[in-house]
Amino acid sequence: MITKRIIPCLDVKDGRVVKGVSFVNLRDAGDPVELASLYDRAGADELIFLDISASHEGRKTMVDVVRSAAGTLRIPFTVGGGIGSVEDMREILRAGADKVSINTAAIHNPDLIEAGARRFGSQCIVVAMDARWDEEEEDWVVYSHGGRKRTDRRAVDWAMEAARRGAGEILLTSMDQDGQKSGFDLPLNRAVASEVCIPVIASGGAGTEEDFIEVFRETPVDAALAASIFHYREIAVENLKIRLKEKGVHVR
């Protein structure tokens, strides 16, 4: 039986963790390394750091965060945000990250997925996608630049292409559900995870322990990610995993 993973996500801006609703209205949530250490001790399976500053100065700050985190964490962690080249990947991985996440750069240059997989191995390459339901298209459309720019890509098609090009994992965020705490986007996660042969991380919408139970029972995703409910102590990772086990979900 596949073990499901629980992954806290830390959006980092100017060296601090922040969280918003549907990608806006950011508020401070704490120090990234302190929060990361807390989740490590609490039993999180992995962590994801997303540098939402993504400027040159933001990158320098993020590398420092990665180095500090690598010195304290026992669990794997992924870093994304503003990574646009194999050299960028190398810098983050050398600083101590286990994986890198690419989003906008992969959309504009899909060959980057293949180049990263060849250089570092598919297990190091996570392709993140931000998707929103489009009523006219009757499909999920992928957005770039932190959810600010609509693309002509469809979520399922893009996930399949990313997998073919060597991605080791898909980080799938529902823009409609992000920060809403009303549950994961089950149709989106089911549609994407059913069509790719690599792990899919469900992101966007977690508000209760039951939301995690539901996404694992109702879709074939391999992991579920959340931010604010963990950061603000609304749900404790250790309690969530106990609850999942009680409901028959296989977790570490």
TrEMBL record:
Location of the protein in the cell: Cytoplasm
GO molecular function list: lyase activity
Keywords: Amino-acid biosynthesis, Cytoplasm, Histidine biosynthesis, Lyase
Catalytic residues in the record: 11, 130
Domain of life: Bacteria
InterPro entries, A to Z: Aldolase_TIM, His_biosynth, HisF, IGPS_HisA/HisF, RibuloseP-bd_barrel
Family the entry assigns: Belongs to the HisA/HisF family.
Subunit composition and interactions: Heterodimer of HisH and HisF.
Protein name (record): Imidazole glycerol phosphate synthase subunit HisF
The gene coding this protein: hisF
